[in-house]
Specification:
alpha/beta; two-stranded antiparallel ribbon
């Protein structure tokens, strides 16, 4: 019995269709179908009811899913348990928002690699809401995201690690201007509203009744800060205290009354069996 076929079965059940499972697993639809046919032939049962346009699990299929999840969990944990030498052993697949990738995460990964050479961590980038969905679906073991903004999956746990403060950034020539004047006179360089940080910014703009003239919308704190420093407009971005030390010459104003703060942390499934591995991420990223 192929572990790949079992993963395919579980992925179809999680995502609802053969086509979506093929995308998630980076397989062709014909390969997905072949995996399922081989399982059905080996088990001598029909796992899916194909009599309707939308295939659905049979009773045997539901039972097979339960057993397959247990087998895959045991297999995934086996490498973690076979520790030889110092440190943790295993694999983690995590997601991370762009600000973490450009900030604390690289140094944390270097430290983890030195202390735990048998712990292999792969990283995918994305926005917080997208990464939360992928953690919920089991595509990622955990994700470094902004503190969840409703609505978000209720079966996920969030552990705060560090925080950023929100700042309005403009070119150095605007020193002495207040935020309302800047936003009224300059193009607004918006943090993507689909991102959780973007939603926080939008909420505060409405709270203060600050009208803006939108020029562009990006999900990159670095790009927005750089454009604002060049005089292309006003950006509102979350910045860590260490980021402030490396900014070019800019006009910097606190955003929010009181200044808004976002927490960045680790998001993982409430039933995760990888917490002994994600614990090292929490401890390392939480260091100042």
């Amino acid at each position: 019995m192929s572990l790949k076929a079992l993963r395919t079965l579980v992925t179809i059940a999680r995502h609802g269709t053969f086509a979506r499972a093929a995308d998630v697993l980076s397989l062709t639809p014909s390969a997905v179908s072949l995996h399922i046919r081989s399982l059905e032939e080996e088990l001598q049962v029909s796992l899916f009811d194909r009599s309707r346009r939308q295939v659905s699990l049979t009773e045997a299929g539901h039972l097979a899913i339960e057993r397959a999840e247990g087998i895959l969990a045991a297999y995934d944990e086996m490498a973690d348990a076979l520790v030889s030498g110092p440190g943790l052993r295993g694999r983690l697949k995590i997601g991370a928002i762009h600000t973490a990738l450009a900030g604390r995460l690289p140094a944390a990964l270097v430290q983890i690699k030195a202390e735990h050479p048998h712990l292999h961590i792969s990283v995918l980038s994305g926005m917080s809401a997208e990464l939360a969905r992928r953690v919920e679906d089991g595509e990622l073991d955990a994700a470094i995201t902004t503190e969840p903004v409703p609505p978000y999956p209720a079966n996920l746990d969030f552990t705060p690690l560090y925080q950023n403060r929100f700042w309005a950034v403009a070119g150095p020539g605007f020193a002495g201007a207040n935020l309302r004047e800047l936003l009224a006179s300059q193009p607004f360089l918006r943090f993507d509203k689909r991102a959780w940080a973007g939603r926080i910014i939008e909420q505060e703009l409405r709270k203060q009744q600050l009208p803006v003239s939108e020029q562009m919308e990006l999900d990159s704190q670095q790009a927005l800060t750089h454009m604002a420093s060049m005089g292309l407009g006003v950006a509102i971005v979350p910045l860590a205290d260490e980021d402030l030390q490396h900014l070019p010459a800019v006009t910097l104003l606190p955003f929010g009354e009181p200044q808004r703060v976002r927490h960045v942390g680790l998001l993982e499934h409430a039933s995760s069996r990888r917490r002994h591995l994600t614990a090292v991420l929490k401890s390392t990223l939480g260091q100042p």
